[in-house]
Write a structure and sequence with these properties.
The chain is an alpha+beta fold. The chain has a single domain, classed as Alpha-Beta Complex (Creatine Amidinohydrolase). It contains 4 helices and 15 strands. Strands 1, 2, 4 and 5 form a 4-stranded antiparallel beta sheet that branches. The chain has a 3-stranded antiparallel beta sheet with strand order 3-12-11, with no helix packed on it. The structure holds 2-amino-4-trifluoromethylsulfanyl-butyric acid and cobalt (II) ion (2 copies).
């Protein structure tokens, strides 16, 4: 997949703004439902119906065989958790990752929610992960490089915490497709990466673990968990690089 350029497609920026805004609205809609006792499948159905009701399509559904409309990643699940019978309980953390397709354009965003009263460690992880995402976005500059993002997040996480940054998954180019170039590492790969130029759309979506960064995928083929069973959190925004600089599309 190649990078979408505004000059190639004058509708891209407005299309991506609309998709990003709807994805954000799904998270705002679901937040009050994220309480102890609800199942992740019930959250899935609520989001699915909301998305369909806004003339959009939930991008995960049937994407490479993914069986549900959203991802729900609880506690030691890093990402791509499949909604099911699991009932949220007091003290859980749960990432809800929403991707909508609106008029052919993709908006991708996620937040990690605290269920009831969480441990100080869980609260601290979630707070630092949100900061890490924002620091990654702040590092994005026209004329800079994709590698700046992981460098900034690595520096922040290593100076302020003992947590680790997931390496096996990253941000991605997005547009009238779900996942494309560039791959956005959230740790310092030591590489510069692609130059950041107007016309790019990509996500910043760091996953931070309390313990080691190592992941494994469960037998369902999707659910990525921490090997050491430590807690993991994630936040995600879709951003656009415009003639005026960086625009966050999912706020
Ligand atoms: N929304 C995820 C991302 O941030 C991708 C989910 S793919 C799925 O890239 F198939 F698991 F839904
Ligand atoms: Co994404
Ligand atoms: Co996502």
């Amino acid at each position: 997949m190649s990078i979408v350029n505004f000059s190639d497609n004058p509708n891209a920026l407005q299309g991506m703004r609309d998709a990003g805004k709807l994805a954000k609205e799904v998270l705002d809609f679901i937040e009050p439902y994220v309480n102890a006792g609800i199942t992740t499948d019930e959250l899935n159905t609520l989001c699915h119906d909301f998305i369909i009701g806004h003339n959009a399509i939930p991008a995960p559904l049937n994407y490479n065989g993914f069986p549900k409309s959203i991802c729900t990643s609880v506690n030691d699940v890093i990402c791509h958790g499949i909604p099911g019978k699991y009932k949220l309980k007091n003290g859980d953390i749960v990432n809800i990752d929403i991707t909508v397709i609106l008029n052919g354009w993709y908006g991708d965003t996620s937040r990690t929610f605290l269920v009831g009263n969480c441990t100080p460690l869980a609260c601290d992880l979630v707070e630092h992960t949100k900061r890490a995402m924002n620091i990654g976005i702040d590092a994005v500059r026209v004329g800079g490089h994709i590698g700046d993002i992981g460098k900034a997040i690595s520096n922040y996480i290593s100076t302020n915490t003992k947590y680790s940054i997931v390496r096996d998954y990253g941000g991605h180019g997005i547009g009238n497709f779900f996942h494309g170039e560039p791959f956005v590492a959230h740790y310092d790969t030591g590489e510069l990466g692609d130059e950041i130029v107007p016309g790019m759309f990509f996500t910043v979506e760091p996953m931070i673990n309390v313990g080691k960064y190592k992941c494994k995928v469960l037998h369902d083929g999707w659910t990525a968990v921490t090997v050491d069973k430590s807690l993991s959190a994630q936040f995600e925004h879709t951003i656009a690089i415009t003639g005026n600089g960086v625009e966050i599309l999912t706020v």
